[in-house]
Amino acid sequence: MRLHVEVTGQGKPLVMLHGWGMHGGIWGEAAIRLAEDFEVHNLDLPGHGASEAQGDLTLDGIVEQLDAQFGQPVAVLGWSLGGIIAQHWAARAPHKVERLILLASTPCFTAREDWLFGMAGETLQQFAAELEKNHAATLRRFLALQVRGSEHERELLVVLREQLFSRGEPDVSALRGGLDILRDADLREQAARIKQPTLAIAGQRDKLTPPEASYYLAQVMPDARVVEVAGAAHAPFLSHTDTVIQHMKRFLHE
C-alpha cells in the first residue's frame, strides 16, 4: 500500500510532512492557502491518519517510502519530526528534493553534551515509557508542550486536540518509531551537505525546537536562511498563519 496523499492545487509540487503523532489534516488552512499557488501533496506518514504502518519505520525506511512515492522533483515542507525526515530525504536524494522549508524543526531533537538546544533525554524516555501505558494520554501531553508559551495558547491547544484523532488513532508501532527517530537522529554533520535552498521558520517561544536550532542550520547549510516568528511556539503555522504563509510563498516563488 502506498502512502495516503491528498493532492490539491496546481503548479510546482510541494510535499507536506507533519509532526509526531499527527496527520496531514493538521495543516488545515495552511494547506488550503499554499494550494492557491502550488500543487500540494499533503500526506500521512506511515502509521498515521489513513496511511498504514508499512515497511521499515526508521528514518531511512520512511525516506525510502517517500522517494518511491514521488517520481518527480519536489519542494518539501517539514514540521518538527517532518522536518527531520525532510532533511534526511534532501541529503539522500538531492535530485528529488529541490527546496526545503523546515518549520519548527532541528537537526537534533534530543539534547547532548555538545548540543544544548534539544529536549532532555530523560524526558523523551519518559514519553516512551508512558506511550506503552496510554498512548492517547501521552499524545495529549505532547500537544500541550507544543503550544506552551505561544500567543493564543489555549485556543491552539483546542485546535490540536480536535485534530489529533480526527483521522483515527496512529499505530503504536509508528509512534515508537517516531520517538526513536527523535531520540537518535543527529543530522548536524549531514546538514552541511544539504545544498538545496532552505528556509527555516522558528517560533520565538518554541520550547521543543528552540530558535537556536534553526540558526544553527542556517549557519552550517550552504544556502539557508531563518525567519523567527515573534510570539509563536512550536506550531507557527496555526498561531501565525498569515505571517508563515507569506514567508513560505515568497521563498517557494524564488
Descriptive key words:
254 residues; alpha/beta; Rossmann fold; seven-stranded mixed beta sheet; 7 strands; 43% helix; 15% strand; globular
Compile the SSE list and pairings:
Layout: E1 5-8, E2 13-17, H1 29-34, E3 39-43, H2 59-69, E4 74-79, H3 81-92, E5 97-103, H4 121-133, H5 135-147, H6 153-164, H7 172-184, H8 188-191, E6 198-203, H9 211-220, E7 224-229, H10 236-239, H11 241-252
Could you please describe the fold and organization of this structure?
By secondary structure, the protein is α/β, with parallel strands linked by helices. It has one domain (5-252): 3-Layer(aba) Sandwich (Rossmann fold). The protein is built from 11 helices and 7 strands. It has helices at 29-34, 59-69, 81-92, 121-133, 135-147, 153-164, 172-184, 188-191, 211-220, 236-239, 241-252; strands spanning 5-8, 13-17, 39-43, 74-79, 97-103, 198-203, 224-229. Strands 1-3-2-4-5-6-7 form a 7-stranded mixed beta sheet, sandwiched between helices. The mean pLDDT is 94.
Question: CATH superfamily, called what?
Answer: Alpha/Beta hydrolase fold, catalytic domain
Main beta-sheet annotation: 7 strands, mixed
Q: What structural category do the secondary elements indicate?
A: alpha/beta
CATH names the topology as: Rossmann fold
Mean pLDDT: 94
The proportion of residues in beta strands is: 15-25%
Secondary-structure element series = EEHEHEHEHHHHHEHEHH
What's the CATH architecture name? 3-Layer(aba) Sandwich
Helix coverage percent: 40-55%
- Give a count of the beta strands, DSSP E runs of length 2 or more: 7
Distance between the termini: 35 Å
What is the molecular shape? Answer: globular
Q: What is the C-alpha radius of gyration, as a whole number of Å?
A: 16 Å
